[in-house]
Every structure is written in structure tokens, then in C-alpha cells.
Amino acid sequence: MNDLLKINNLSYKKNQKTILTNVNLNIEKGKIVALLGENGAGKTTLMRIIAGVAKNYKGQIEVNGATKEAERKAKLSFTDGLNGFSDSTKINEIVEFYVNIFSDFNENEFEELSKFMKLDPEMKLSQLSKGMREKLVIALTFARKADLYLLDEPFGGIDAMSRKKIINSIIMWKDDDATILISDHFVNEISTLLDEVVIIKNETIFAHKTADEIRESHKSVEGYYEGLYEGEDD
After folding, report:
1. Is 9 within 8 Å of 60 (Cβ atoms)?
2. What's the Rg (C-alpha) of the chain?
3. Are 57 and 12 in contact (CB under 8 A)?
4. Helix, strand, or coil (residue 76)
5. Cα within 13 Å of Cα(136), Cβ side
6. What are the Cα distances from residue 55, in Å, to 52, 97, 149?
7. How far apart are CA 9 and CA 94, in angstroms?
8. Domains of the chain
9. In what order do the strands lie in the sheet with 76-78?
10. What pLDDT, on the 0 to 100 scale, is given for residue 234?
């Protein structure tokens, strides 16, 4: 197996509360993988730990051979919420920051993605709707030539038609060997992209299946996911 992401015996607590425990996960190069789970299950936390944003976890994470945090960060691109920028910051100023910080950031690629997303580089963050801001984050994320892309609920504010166009285009925005881990509530809309599905439940990896395995059982990815929670509210 040619694993790009390896997570071994990962546990994480915040404010004395256990969020994740004994998480073990291997994902191969070139895969598009859904990370699913209820709100509060730990999906965002896991992505933040992989990205080197959340600290003080136990266990080991490896991204394409890199285990040290700085080396991992250089190999992945995470859908940052742009919280570090003021509302008066223009898109072209954010691009300039990315160029200076990330050696793998491709301005030409961003320009193409920006046109696709219909973004005006002179616009300030304060002028962007939630959906436009999310489109900017997606463009910035895929303008980097990364081994691993972490997409944390990237489509929440994007209208249905634009969302469909973006989802259908994602596969063209990554190299063949690059891997995408995507957490999203629009399970039925991303299902055609997926190679694998990972479910977080009860603070750990509850299930890890290929999309083909799920389809062979005559279920949709969404149906399989929802089936794991049937009867729990009774």
C-alpha cells in the first residue's frame, strides 16, 4: 500500500473533554475521501490536528512521509477560514500573502480558479457574501500544489448551482497522486467523487469503507451513513 496519510493511536482532549480517542487511519495516494459524522463528532478537530492547527494531541500523524509539524504543513493545503485577515483586506492582498508564505502557491492557477469562481481581486473581505468567501477559500486552497487537501465543510454558503459546478470540477484541480479529505453535509452531492468513506462516531473511527463496497451493498453513500444512526433517537 502507498499511504499518503497515516494516523496512529491519536487521542485529543480539550478543556478536559475527550474529543477523539484511539484514532487510526490510513489513506492512500490519489484518493478522494469523505470524512463524515454528526455535528460535534470531531471532524473539524481531526482536520485541524492533521493541519497542525490544533496542538497537544497524543499519537502520530504522517503526511507523505513527514511527521514533524512544519514538514506536514508544507505538504498539505487546508481550507483556512481567513480569520487572520481584517475585513478591509482585498483579495489581491491575501493572494500576495499566500505567495510569500507558501512556496507551492501558483498565482496563475489562482487566477484561473478566481475566474471560475467569479471573484474580483479588488474586492474586500467585507464585500463578500458567505458563499463568495467560501469560493475564495476553495480557490486559495487548490492554488497550492499540495499532496493532501483538507476541505472542512467548504460549501455551506454556496448556492446549489455553483456548488454543483465546483464539485464536478474538483477532480481536475488536484494531481493524480494528491489526496483529498472532505467533510461535508451535502453527502449526496459529493458521493460521485468519492473513493472512500470514513465515519467518525463515538470519538473514534467507526467505519472506513470504499465507496464501491457501499454501492455493492445496494446502498447510496448517504443511505449507508444515515443507516448508522437509525434508531438512536427512539
Report:
1. yes
2. 18
3. yes
4. strand
5. 27
6. 7, 24, 19
7. 36
8. 3-227 (3.40.50.300)
9. 76-78, 148-152, 179-183, 32-36, 196-201, 204-210
10. 47
Residues 6+ apart with CB under 8 A from 131: 157, 158, 159, 162
Give one DSSP letter per residue of 186-214, joined into a string. Answer: -HHHHGGG-SEEEEEETTEEEEEEEHHHH
Q: pLDDT class for 40, splitting at 50, 70, 90?
A: confident
- Residues in the chain, how many? 234
Q: How confident is the model at residue 138 (pLDDT cuts 50, 70, 90)?
A: very high
Q: Could you give the C-alpha distances from 67 to 49, 166, 178, 219, in angstroms and in order?
A: 12, 31, 17, 37
How far is the C-alpha of 80 from the C-alpha of 1, rounded, in Å?
30
- State the chain's mean pLDDT as an integer: 93
Handedness of CA 219, 221, 225, 226 (dihedral sign): negative
Query: What pTM, to 2 d.p., does this model score?
Result: 0.94
CB atoms within 10 A of CB 47: 22
